[in-house]
Amino acid sequence: MKLLISAIHFASRAHAGQLRKDKLTPYINHPLxxxxxxxxxGDVRNETFLCAAVLHDIVExxxxxxxxxxxxxxxxxxxxxxxxxxxxxxxxxxxxxLQAERAHLLSEGAKLIRLADKISNVKDILxxxxxxxxxxxxxxxxxxxxxVVQPIRGINPPLELMYDELLVRADDILK
Length: 175
Ligand code: ZN
Known about the structure:
globular; 10 helices; Hypothetical protein af1432
């Protein structure tokens, strides 16, 4: 519990001032939602996984390094964060392709975070989308998340059901 509170504190400071793609929502809402999805809906109790969920976008989106996470937290948390960190030097489309292609190789904790991350992102695409995205772009994003989630299936049935219900809603909203 103490470690999780430190992770929340650390992530709030690291993401301070950053906004989600709708340019209104504080960025920290997203990693907190991923943690909440795992804990509340996925019944995940593993503190390492919950800490990694809170920290999952820090290396990708702030100046914090994986070494910092290792030093301030521990190697297990750092290794999960590393697994879900995309290499920003790789072009965006290639990054997306690799995420889907490598999803089945992820550890249990990283798979859980990936799944909850996609749920959180799809929710945003449906209800608080980036201002510049049209329906086609939003639909394309949702379709891509299916490629990432498919190889992960079997990891957490309640969260998978939640994701599937979101897809039904997406069909309706993104007509
Ligand atoms: Zn994320």
